[in-house]
Amino acid sequence: MTKRLSNRYGKIMILFGILIMVPMVVVFFDNSQIKYLYSFILPGVISIILGVLICKDFKKAENNSIFSANLKNSTMLVLFSWFYCFLLGALPLWLGGQLNPIQALFESVSGYTTTGLTVVIPSQTPLIYLAHQIFMQYCGGFGVVLMFIMIIKDQSAVTLYTAEGHQDKLLPNIQKTARLIFITYNLLIIIGTGGFYILGMDVFDALCNSITSLFTAGYSIKDIGISYYNSTAVYLFSMILMILGSINTGVLLMIFQGKFKIVKKITELKFMFFLIVLLGSISTVVLWFSSNLGFFNSILTGFYNVISSLSTTGNYNYDIRILPPFVLQVMIICMLLGGCAGSTTGGLKLSRIVILLKTMYNSLIMKTSSSRRVLSISWNTASGKKIIENETIKETISYIGFYFLVMLIGANLLTITANCSLMEGFFEFASALSSFGVTIGITGPNTNNLTLIVEMIGMILGRLEIYILLIGGNYFYKAISKKIKYQIEQKKNI
């Protein structure tokens, strides 16, 4: 491992050691939280010290390196960053006596993956730990590696940026791109906080709801979520933020620049609004005829559920356990689809769905047409019209296949570990895999550890995306095998 690579691991540990202590600012507003400071200071200081030592002592790591290529280094660094965050984020909750180790790890994974499934009861949780949950989602919404990229200055940043799953290079320089994304979303958070405050929330509630709505995260500091506020205006404003969080960052910037003629042509964005109108209308009709909500509340609830599910936020304004089964099925479809690529949403991403549908349509045309010419697949993006290459089509179809295979396995595992129906298992695992974060009643303070572990695996696969874990696992397996083989040969030579 080179000095530079070793330094990156050390710098990540220093950065996250600092970030883990940020929730301590709550003490300035509530002195009663002082007694919990040790649970943040201890892991934060230890992480910083270890990071400093690793940055200084790189020679041993260099001699024992099992990774060489830059792509491998970047993939492993991305995986290290996320898993280190998961472990570090769990420590305050465990050290503070709030949760057992598995529950604390579950809460950390849910936070950093912006899923929002939780085993804590907000009304029974100290304020500093609620702030910790929200801040984990804040960091996870940006992407932990993207936050690191903002402070490093070398060519590896490009590989790291791509390895974490980011597609758009908004500016020629990756560091400037990362900072532009950071500034854009923070400005939106400020606007969102101001909006919720005007609508009657206090500053802390407004900030938390702004972060969780914009980063499509779903954590709430209230036991019944955003429905606690029971305000149509709050629901409508939350819907706007969730939609903004579902839009590609580059497209968001174009909207702010007033480039509406270009924006309205973007295929993925048009498809998203088509789904919102179609599925929202269907849900409204079903709710109107099968519940006592009334026409207006049926519209509000129908569209709110669709937007919350499609954006994989997980906010809700109505108890989902008493929704009609058909509406639940619509929600499952939406959460699995997700929002636009390059947004803060989970799920498959609509870009993949568009590619799949266009491929299916072209296959049908070729079979029903006497012409044997090859039909190209194209779509409009923020940077203009693009032709989709065959390799991209193959990767997309392969990924969707992997995704639903994981979905099927996970749902069935939940029926075993949680002793639930297959429908409940599908909803709960889809909620974890897509980062939706709403429970149908399976996940809570009394959920068993095996169920939590299955859901954690789903959340990690959904946030990091399946391929990077498969690639990283393959690199690690080959590197370890090579190291073992080398050791065996050395012993034979002796």
Explain what you see:
- The chain has 494 residues and is mostly helical.
- Helices cover 66% and strands 2% of the residues.
- The protein has 21 helices and 2 strands.
- The chain has helices at 3-19, 38-56, 59-63, 70-95, 101-112, 127-142, 144-149, 156-163, 174-198, 203-214, 232-245, 249-256, 260-263, 267-290, 295-310, 325-337, 350-368, 390-417, 422-433, 449-464, 466-493, and strands at 377-381, 384-388.
- The protein has a two-stranded antiparallel ribbon with strand order 1-2.
- A hairpin with a 2-residue loop joins β1 (377-381) and β2.
- The longest helix has 28 residues, at 390-417.
- The chain is globular and about 75 Å long.
- It starts with a helix and ends with a helix.
- The model is unreliable at 59-69 (pLDDT under 50).
The H/E string reads HHHHHHHHHHHHHHHHHEEHHHH
Q: Class by helix and strand content?
A: mainly alpha
What summary fits the major beta sheet?
2 strands, antiparallel
The residue ranges in which pLDDT falls below 50 over 5 or more consecutive positions are 59-69
Report the principal-axis shape: globular
Helix content bin: 55-70%
Mean pLDDT: 83
Would you kindly provide a brief summary of this structure?
This protein has 494 residues and is mainly alpha-helical. Helices cover 66% and strands 2% of the residues.
Q: Which labels suit this protein?
A:
494 residues; mainly alpha; two-stranded antiparallel ribbon; 66% helix; globular
